[in-house]
Amino acid sequence: MITIVAKNTVNKDYIHEFIKLTSKLIEESRKENGCKMYHLYQDNNNKNILTFIEKWENEESIRIHNESIHFKKIVPKLNRIQEKDTEVNLYKEIE
């Protein structure tokens, strides 16, 4: 199992647009083989920080996800309304 934590710092004027765009991404990603969990969270202390926390069965399922039509269509739109690049970390479950 691999957990992805993808932290996005969104321009304050585009938070609602970011959340709206992610709804389709989340819906389609949850249907993918190997997706065990896919959620978006908003930081309690800084509303501009929106973080995806995802759980995937293996690296192959992540690779397929990153090549999916919905990912390739939506993620570039999300990137345009962020203040800086997404910080993405992958974690392997050890216990």
UniProtKB/TrEMBL annotation:
InterPro entries membership: ABM_dom (IPR007138), AI-2_Isomerase_LsrG (IPR050744), Dimeric_a/b-barrel (IPR011008)
One Pfam family it belongs to: ABM
Stretches assigned to the ABM domain: 2-90
Highest taxon in the source lineage: Bacteria
Keyword tRNA processing found: no
UniProt GO molecular function: monooxygenase activity
Residues in coiled coil: none
Keywords, sorted A to Z: Monooxygenase, Oxidoreductase
Protein name per UniProt: Quinol monooxygenase YgiN
Protein source organism: Clostridium algifaecis
